Amino acid sequence: MAITTLDQRTALVLIDLQKGVAQNTVPPVADVITNAISLITAFRAAKLPIVVVNVSFAKDYADALKTRTEEKGSRTFSGDWDQLLPELPLQQDDIYITKHNWSAFYGTDLDLQLRRRGITNIVLAGIATSIGVEGTARSAHERAYNLTFAKDAMSDRSLPAHEHSLQVIFPRIGETGTTIEIIEQLKALK
Q1: 186: CB partners within 8 A, 6+ apart
Q2: The dihedral of CA 109, 169, 70, 159: what is its sign?
Q3: What's 166's DSSP letter?
Q4: Which tens digits make up the pLDDT trace of 64-104?
Q5: Is residue 95 in a domain?
Q6: Helix boundaries (H) for 76-120
Q7: CATH of the domain at 150
Q8: What is the pLDDT of residue 55?
């Protein structure tokens, strides 16, 4: 479904725009970063919350999933893999969430942070479309948030997975549009 409107209380939620995740993606990560920067700038100008989510684990991975489908014993990450991309114009008063699963809601205080600010609508962007973004979107939908997807500000390591999320899953639980369309909707809120 195309974007029809944004709620007055909308937050931007950026998923896993971090060094170890923003690699080998389709569409290319450079486009995602450019559009994420545009969204950050627009949300900041509109004085609306910006939530930045990264995924990380304890050094011993004690807080990581241990299911049969997770890779066993092969977790090797560089020392800065969980660091947010330095080109993002983030500020100290943005909301920072560290997750340990696909969804930014599971095991974090994201829902509490949003509800305390009266947020009813979430604009989602980030990497990977079919994992972190979709996992967070499904959890947000279950919590009755209105969802808007910045389809040109997300990417995945699998093009078929990326397209499936954009074409099949997201239209069932929210509205999708481009960064420019979202920014136009933000301007209409004033």
Answers
A1: 6, 10, 42, 43, 45, 46, 48
A2: negative
A3: I
A4: 666 666 654 455 566 776 777 789 999 999 999 989 888 99
A5: yes
A6: 110-116
A7: 3.40.50.850
A8: 80
